[in-house]
Amino acid sequence: MSNPLELREVSVAYDGPPVVRNVSLDLEVGTIGCFIGPSGCGKSTLLRAIAGFEPVQHGEIWLDGRRVAAPGFSLPPESRRVGMVFQDFALFPHLSVAGNLAVGIRKLPQRDRRDRVATLLKLVDLTQCADLYPHQLSGGMQQRVALARALAPRPTVLLLDEPFSSIDTTLREQLAHEVRAVLLREGVTAVLVTHDQLEAFAVADRIGVLAKGELRQWDSALELYQNPADPFVAGFIGQGVILPCSTLPPRQVMTELGKADTLHAHGLAPGTAMEVLIRPDDLIDDPTAPCRATVIERSFRGDAYLYGLRLASGNRVLALIPSQREYRLGETIGLRLVERKLAAFAPQHVSG
């Protein structure tokens, strides 16, 4: 059985070098994917290529077992069975909520169209708003209308381009969870583009991290956090710092903070130079630890403080410490590593 979405070495260019380079991935039925990365990394261009708004320079795009794009060939957007939710929602101001939902299913018989609109209104919890107009709705409600309208014709893949960017920051994560629930209830395969990691983590099953047009890793949020493919992904996802280290056979590295287990040092000669990722939750304050660090920053996080700490070498690390144990700026504390496998990067990834 074919996957709803497959990208095979896709490159996209405008008038110069490729904006997207050799991206390959697939998305299974009912799975929600997400592209994330810094501004200009190519994530929106990739989404537009899937939708049919941009031609591919190299490679192929397949939707539900059909090739829809290749060099010199592009199936029109309206023939791809792709739904799209835009940043500004693009609702028709002169149509009611129910009228907006019916736009894409006008060819259905009247009774089927009415039933589908009623189902979608219930799905997004807006039945009571059927006769209201977009200007009478909050931003969150407008977002749900845009989502329901895109779902109305039952697309093979639903594409969402920064769908929460115009929503108040305090509501974004809540709406992201609501959108995920709607997509799962409808059984829709979807791809989201966002610059916000919390949105990506709240919505997506698979996340693609892009940098300079290249897909650096396509994985679950947990794998991206715990086992980033390279220092860029490590630095982009979550918080943490990368420290120099050297290998200790068979599967350990020696760091300034002590020994650490890793899955990435196997087969390397003892003393091989590497880098290791240290997350704030990889460190524990321990007065008996031989490694000492000076508190240089402190941010309250409710049940914990996030401390910025300077090691003897001058390197800086972050540590998340319960707020019951409060340290002053300038105070020296002991640090030790938790007993877990840390991500380390092979010599070819070491910068400089």
What can you see in these coordinates?
A hairpin with a 2-residue loop joins strand 10 (206-211) and strand 11 (214-219). The protein is built from eight helices and 21 strands. The chain starts with a strand and ends in a 7-residue tail after the last strand. By secondary structure, the protein is an alpha+beta fold. A six-stranded mixed sheet has the order 7-8-9-3-10-11, sandwiched between helices. It has a five-stranded antiparallel sheet with strand order 2-1-4-5-6, covered by helices on one side. It has helices at residues 43-51, 97-102, 110-123, 139-151, 169-186, 197-203, 221-226, 231-236, and strands spanning 5-13, 18-27, 32-36, 58-63, 66-70, 73-74, 82-85, 157-161, 189-194, 206-211, 214-219, 241-248, 252-255, 258-261, 273-278, 283-285, 291-300, 304-311, 316-322, 332-337, 344-345. Helix 4 (139-151) runs parallel beside helix 5 (169-186) and helix 5 packs parallel to helix 6.
